[in-house]
């Protein structure tokens, strides 16, 4: 893990309120160059809201987000690749046509589509219509789109969604190889086992609040990560009453 002075993403005291509901309630995090950082928590914990705030898709109620030492804006977001929730793809286009269209939209060379397809192992399906793709294939193509502009920060919401066991293992390898090349990766998941195999540090978010942040091993109870995770959830539930 690299030093924190290589910070790519910094979030400080981030709040997002919807009336009386606090989707985020003072979250802090720092993701550094070459690091894989995991956001863990149950559905509705605030993970996706946090990612959308980082991408400028949600306006925070309070707090700050800084990308590469600057504010969230056109120039900084151009260096970010993201896949949040369901990939937005056109079913009548082929995989190759989809990437070429996104290359033009993002003003990157069309020849960059080839390595993106190769990385997610989709070259064999490049000429098939997206409408005929399985969920796992759509997810791979969505990640290829996110990687197309060769981002310095990659944000993935449930990156193994719809993948079979072989695909899950391959995705772990892709994420780690990107980090080894210096890309900062932020992952959100509720799958503890998957996060445990790929992340350098994690944050557990429950009901919009940070319940744990640090090395994954520090979350364990008597060496059991799952026991530690569920103890945090139980403690958070008890504190709500």
Describe this protein with a few key phrases.
241 residues; alpha/beta; four-stranded antiparallel beta sheet; ATP binding; ATP hydrolysis activity; ATP-binding
Overall description:
This protein has eight helices and ten strands. The longest helix has 16 residues, at 165-180. A hairpin with a 2-residue loop joins β1 (7-18) and β2 (21-32). α4 packs across α5 (135-147). The strands form two sheets. Strands 6-7-8-3-9-10 form a six-stranded mixed beta sheet, with helices on both faces. With 241 residues, it is an alpha/beta fold. The model has no long low-confidence stretch (mean pLDDT 90). It has a domain at 1-79 and 155-161 and 184-241: P-loop containing nucleotide triphosphate hydrolases (Rossmann fold, 3-Layer(aba) Sandwich). Residues 9-232 form the ABC transporter domain. This is ABC-2 type transport system ATP-binding protein. Keywords: ATP-binding, Nucleotide-binding, Transport.
Q: What is the helix content?
A: 25-40%
Radius of gyration equals: 18 Å
Mean pLDDT: 90
Give the total of beta strands: 10
Termini distance? 38 Å
Low-confidence stretches: none
| Biggest sheet descriptor | 6 strands, mixed
What would you say the CATH architecture of the domain at 1-79 and 155-161 and 184-241 is? 3-Layer(aba) Sandwich
Instruction: Tell me the series of helices and strands, N- to C-terminal.
Output: EEEHEEHEHHHEHEHEEH
> Counting H and I runs of at least 4 residues, what is the number of helices?
8
